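does this look right to u?? guanosine-5'-triphosphate version
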Amino acid sequence: MHYWQMQPIPAKMAHLFQLRKPSVRIPQPRIPDKWLAAFESDTDLVEQRVAIIMAWVVLITMPMYQTSHHLRNVDSEGLWMAELLFRIPGVLCGLLTLAALHFGRPQLPARALLRMLGISVMVMILALFLIHYRDHPDNMTQLSNGLVITFFGVTALAIRGLREWCLVFLTPFVIFLVIAPFAGIPRAMLLPLLFDPMVMVVITLVATAAVRHLRIREFLARQELTEIASTDQLTGLLNRRPMHPLMVHEVNRARRTGTPFSIVLGDLDRFKKVNDTYGHEAGDLVLQETARRLQAAIRAQDIVCRWGGEELLILLPETGPEGAGQVAEKIRAAMDDAPVQTGNEVIHQTISLGVSSFRPDDTVTTLISRADEALYEAKSAGRNRVVQADQPG
Ligand SMILES: Nc1nc2c(ncn2[C@@H]2O[C@H](COP(=O)(O)OP(=O)(O)OP(=O)(O)O)[C@@H](O)[C@H]2O)c(=O)[nH]1
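got this back:
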């Protein structure tokens, strides 16, 4: 039997594997508030990629169309100049997009670049439509084909959905419909020319909604897996895995900006005795209650993780030795002041804590090792106390 055949799917993840009845509607899955920021940066990444691809498409196709008039039976000096004029903004937007996204930090968000690309291409094709109709009303097949291609491309750019599509596609299109009769094109003449392009718009809208739906589901599954992989199942705290990158981030920030930060390493005192005396289940309850008290003692921006068995690590951003000492003492008191009730047992559980604060020559390893030494000192000095590696100055 294969490994995967033997493993039950955890209840928390079961919905990810459920087979659903296909539905005609494409309801977009709801993204929980806690993941909105992550989804925003995910969307930005998708938009960056789409913007780069679209910029290349524009930069390749615009010169191609500009130099192929004789092949497309629209050879005329006046038209050539007019087309060049309306293609220049699209080409400039393409170049700006590539410059912004390929080289260095993008100064403009990908969303703004996509809007610029979409609107410039829409304005170009609709203006060319008006100009061509004035000069060659009997030869509009080429332009109708151009509309199909452009409507598809611009509709596909609206990664964020209908509101974005209204801005890049619908607004220029409605303006075009309003001014077309004034430019000499009766609305009745427009219908046959716009029929195929509009069918293409509907198909693309449905396809992009389906892709967006799949993307959101894939994002939610990825986030849930990441959360499961970085959470300690017993206490609900973060586990050791995501803590290292967070501390590296703080070390880099402290070096760059000079902002202090500290860590507190806590270890439950004589916890083996709790397990031996009251049983493992009672020990688990003590760990859960400890996690709850720790979280109540720290600020929202502080991060607490289960570092090992009965060891906890607290990261205190923007906190120097003095503040860190106060937080550690608060945690010590939170455990010492009230016993933990586990069923019938009342357990007086204390904690020892070692504190270290960032020094300019510190790495994550040296910082942890100083907190560890301080914790060892706290244990040697009798437990239920705080020892600071860096004395408040
Ligand atoms: N119940 C329970 N116990 C755990 C868990 N993880 C680690 N432990 C126990 O924690 C105990 C740690 O014991 P020691 O490392 O000897 O330290 P201690 O008894 O706390 O003594 P000091 O640290 O010196 O004060 C061991 O008995 C582990 O089995 C857990 O998830 N649940």
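Confidence is low (pLDDT under 50) at residues 1-6. idk if thats expected tbh
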